[in-house]
Amino acid sequence: MSKVASPEELSRVRYGPPKKGWMDSPAEFKEGRWCYGSKPKDHHVIGLPNPRSWSPGDEDWKLPDNWKEIFLEGMRERLDKFRTFRIFMDICVRCGACADKCHFFIGSGDPKNMPVLRAELLRSIYRGEFTNTGKILGKLAGGRKLTYEVFKELFYYFFQCTECRRCSLFCPYGIDTAEITIIGRELLNLLGCNIDWITGPVANCYRTGNHLGIQPHAYHSMLEFFCEEIEEITGILPEPSFNRKGAEILFITPSGDVFADPGTYTCMGYIMLFHYLEGLGLDLTWSTYASEGGNFGYFTSHEMAKRLNAKMYAEAERLGVKWILGGECGHMWRVCNQYMDTFWEPPKSLEIPVSPITGTRFEQAKDHKMVHICEFTADLIKHGKLNLDPSRNDIYNVTFHDSCNPARAMGLFEEPRYIINNVCNNFVDMPINTIKEQTFCCGGGSGLNTDEIMDLRMRGGFPRANAVDYVHQKHGVNLLSCICAIDRATLPPLMEYWVPEVGVSGVHELVANALVLEGEQKRTTNLRAEEFPWVEEEEEEAEEEALEVSLEAAEETAAEAAEEAVAEAAEEAAEEAAEEVAEEAGEEEAEGEK
Amino acid sequence: MGIWVSFFAVIALVLIPSVGAQGAGQYIFGIFIPYVAVLIFVIGFIYRVVQWGKTPVPFKIPTTGGQMKSLPWIKWNPLDNPATTGGVVGRMALEVLAFRSLFRNTRVELRDGPRVSYGSNKWLWVAALAFHYAFLVVFLRHFRLFMEPVPGFVGLLESVDGFMEVGLPRLMISGVVLLLAALYLFLRRVAVPQLRYISFAADYFPLFLIIALAGSGLLMRYFIRVDITSVKELITGLVSLRPTIPEGIGVIFFVHLFLLSVLIAYFPFSKLMHAGGVFMSPTRNMANDNRQNRHINPWNYPVKVHTYAEYEDEFREKMKEVGLPVEKE
Amino acid sequence: MALKQLLEENKSVILSRWFDTILETYPVDTQHFLRSKKNQFDNPVARRISDGIEGIFSQILNDDEEKDVSPFLDKVIRIRAVQDFAPSRAVAFMFDLKRLVREVLGKAIRELQLSEELGRFEEAIDKMGLLALDIYMKCREEIYELRVNEVKRSVSRLIERANKICGIPGKEGDPEVCSTDNLT
């Protein structure tokens, strides 16, 4: 082997950072990694502290003078209020089991994206400011003081965590980085440091009932529009009801599905399913007030989560329904499953959910009174209540992305798979270490689905996309289905970048495709106006038939025409002959007169 | 830097009793320090656990690792996603006794061609198990020294532990395993860059301390013999609160005892408290039965909400226009 | 042709050194992770890079007229395009190959007097390097397209609905003013 020439040696660039401890290398704010700062007008709507125009890219974040005091006092308060927080600050042994479980670490290689280090950012302050060993020994005991730089670093990395809890699954002590991020973000919020993509939706949701800020009449008319679309496809016009008192069930789903493709098809799917079930005794209403299942308040603070969540039970009580049915959504179900029943006592007017169609009592929701639509639909299918034609989904080879929250904060694995297997003929799962409890995040959870961090999302979502790519190559998968509205917003660009041949859908879109409605016209397309595979064949056949028919008809008409022609000709001839005879007779008469 | 500070700290901790445990000094290292250490340990441990226990658990947030209990015909995973107290006990038992969560790391189904693909993580699980169980066995074997008569399980344990039937005195596997596992955990921390990156003095110190503790124990058992009868006399004296210092115990014993004292005194202030914390971790020790049984947050407080009435007041006209029902005309 | 043979014979050495060189562009603390985890789902980045460079290398050795190196370049660059690398750093790995080949085969090349062939080989690599830059740009453009598309998608139905309303004269808006052209 030859010796490398020295100029070449010199020209070699080493990209690895100098070997400094992580406490000595402050975060470098890179464009495309941080989200835009929250806007003052939204702060005013929901009463967040420190309203001002600012950007995380600025040198000065315009914090109040006593910011340090506020932060540390907030931390002390939370250490006394959350056992999780205190224990997670105390017991980590830094074994590193979580280190390579984070999709952001896997995709970016930034060591501060290791869950353990993300937590250490805050833990080091806990040790340095709250424990004696840390106060005395400082860095030696892993403690450090809260400085402006450290504060910025916390912001930077707590908004690079999607609270997916994958690391928590592998931690021998169950340390949940999501919990640390949630509390970390609460602390940042005490100083008014949040991102626009979160505070905007929160302010909207507070006022209009949903994140997108859709006002009631617009919400109503959007769904009406879907009904018209459904009529075009099926020949049947569903008539969903809104804010209707005395209905048995209140349906709440994320508003993202009302405006944005491909979520809209899932929304149409719900409408069709409910229409179908009306004939079997379903009595359900939508609400424009509780028109949001998701809860971006949860990405702000526990208190904000509670403030937005209030609408669900309040609306259920006002309308006098018996129970609540919840749509496909990830973090909505994290809040609904693990917080809602603690935030609020369920109204006394609610009853244990019972499916009006199958009579199944949902015992698992006996106190909370809210059922996931996948539980509801799986039960319908199990009881044979749905007339399904899975071949209508034959153009799809489907795989299923377990959304983080229903996976690791609920355990909803089999219901959606059962449904898909009944409404599609081609389903295949991704490799085992990328699904179910080990599922990878879409890269945009916890309010990070904004477009200014597209780079971050693309690398964060890469482990997920990579597994999709595998089943795409191996099994020809071309559709990634999921039960989360944020997934339906974030997975399409992820697929477009990494596996452009794969589309994204909700589970109930597939249900509606397969669902045979009573009295529907002959359907030729699915909800996306894509023709069913057999339609072309059928059309060809039909054309051939039509051709035959027309040929026959032509023959017939020709024969008839010929007959007619002959008859006419005969008639004409007869007439002519008669005329001639008459004329002759006349002439003869005239001659006779002469 | 953390490594060297910890290393020299432990060297110092070895030297202090080697020099000091002479004559009257033996009273300090043999009686005073062990008592103080035990006191610190007991009070500190209780203090920490009580502090954790006093801190409320506002929300029920188990991390679910399997199918939840839902419809009766859907196969439920009661251990990874428990919905009952029994299930939680099972989950905790798996976690504490078998390190269930660490074991998950090894589940690598698809391998990259012929190359072996499960690496350090499986070893972490093995080493962690070996380390903790060896420590437990070593600890239990020491009961021979505190109790008279020697409890039956100690003999049983020793016959299993010494199954190799080599050496005189008979080689006990547990001590060697403990030392090797601790060494492995240390080397792993140094050799894997991302682990070295997250480690600091408080991670190395307990490892060095335990390595020194196990090392001094092994030395004492196999190489620098001490008078075991005198040792037992000292220890039973300590345990029965009638402390004495018998003549002729080698200094190595005081080194061993001092390191142990430091370890247990250090325990409550360190990450070693994971031993208590693991039982109280809310993501593991709670049932995923949120929708069946209401969890109460002791500090739940009323919050400002946007009521339906306020909502209707703002949008009433628009609602009426499209025929949405309203409360007030 | 002798150079090709040499490259073929030393393929595994060159590839593994090439892989290492690329990993060196990542933070030191992460390199171990990238190197150690062989599972393609636990460590997709390293897998993609090693698949990519293997493909690139075999295309270099491929004499086929219709050889196409871009899918393999794409494999490597697509991930680097979203990893905070400057364009020059993202594609530098192609040019590194020249140095690596000289390092590994320099002596043999001199002995066998293959410098002319080496020149042609390096020319081919330069071309690929430029192609790599094209691919990098394409990926970046895609990212911006994704951002635009996402914004469009988030209101797609609103616009469709608006168009539908505007299309019906005399209803909610004047079709003259509310032309669909303005909305799409």
Structure description:
The longest helix of chain A is centred in the last third of the chain and has 61 residues, at 533-593. In chain A, 52% of the residues lie in helices and 5% in strands. Chain A is mostly helical. Chain A folds into two domains: 21-194, Fumarate Reductase Iron-sulfur Protein, Chain B, domain 2 (Orthogonal Bundle); 199-514, no CATH class. Chain A starts with 5 loop residues before the first helix and ends with a helix. The radius of gyration of chain A is 34 Å and the shape is elongated. With 329 residues, chain B is mainly alpha-helical. Chain B has a single domain, classed as Transmembrane di-heme cytochromes, Chain C (Fumarate Reductase Cytochrome B subunit, Up-down Bundle), CATH 1.20.950.20. Chain B has helices spanning 2-20, 25-54, 85-98, 100-104, 120-141, 143-146, 152-161, 173-191, 193-198, 201-223, 228-239, 251-266, 274-277, 308-321. The N and C termini of chain B lie far apart (75 Å). Chain C has 184 residues and is mainly α. Chain C has one domain (2-155): Orthogonal Bundle (Globin-like). Helix content of chain C is 77%, strand content 0%. Chain C has nine helices and no strands. In chain C, helix 2 crosses helix 4 (44-61) and helix 5 (70-80) crosses helix 7 (115-154). The model of chain C is unreliable at 168-184 (pLDDT under 50).
Task: Break the fold down into its secondary structure elements and pairings.
The complex is a heterotrimer of chains A (594), B (329) and C (184).
Chain A: H1 6-11, H2 40-46, H3 67-81, H4 83-90, H5 103-108, H6 115-130, H7 132-137, H8 148-158, H9 166-170, H10 177-190, H11 196-208, H12 216-234, E1 241-242, E2 249-252, H13 256-259, H14 263-278, E3 284-286, H15 302-319, E4 323-326, H16 330-343, E5 370-372, H17 373-382, E6 398-401, H18 404-408, H19 414-423, H20 454-460, H21 462-475, E7 479-482, H22 485-498, E8 503-506, H23 507-514, H24 533-593
Parallel strand pairs in A: 1-3, 2-3, 2-4, 4-5, 6-7, 7-8
Chain B: H1 2-20, H2 25-54, H3 85-98, H4 100-104, H5 120-141, H6 143-146, H7 152-161, H8 173-191, H9 193-198, H10 201-223, H11 228-239, H12 251-266, H13 274-277, H14 308-321
Chain C: H1 2-9, H2 11-23, H3 28-36, H4 44-61, H5 70-80, H6 87-112, H7 115-154, H8 156-167, H9 180-183
